[in-house]
Amino acid sequence: MQTAQSQTKMNGSDMTHILYFAHDLADPAIRRRVMTLRAGGATVSLTGFKRADNGLTDVDGLASIDLGQTADGRFAQRIACVAKASFTLARKLSSVKKPDVIIARNLEMLALARRAVIHFGADVPVVYECLDIHRLLLNEGLPGKLLNAVQRALGRNVKLLITSSPAFVENYFKPRSGLNLPVLLQENKVLALDGDDMTAPSPRLPQAGEPWKIGWFGALRCRKSLQILADFAAKMDGKVEVVLRGRPAYSEFDDFDGFVERAPHLAFHGAYRNPEDLASIYNDVQFTWAIDFFEEGQNSSWLLPNRLYEGCLHGALPIAVAGTETARFLQQRKIGHILETADVASLETLFSELSDASYLQSFQTLAAIDRQQWITDRNDCRELVRVLQSLTMRTDGRPVDAVPLMALSGRTS
Question: Which of 33, 138, 200, 239 has the largest CB neighbor count within 10 A?
Answer without folding.
Answer: 33
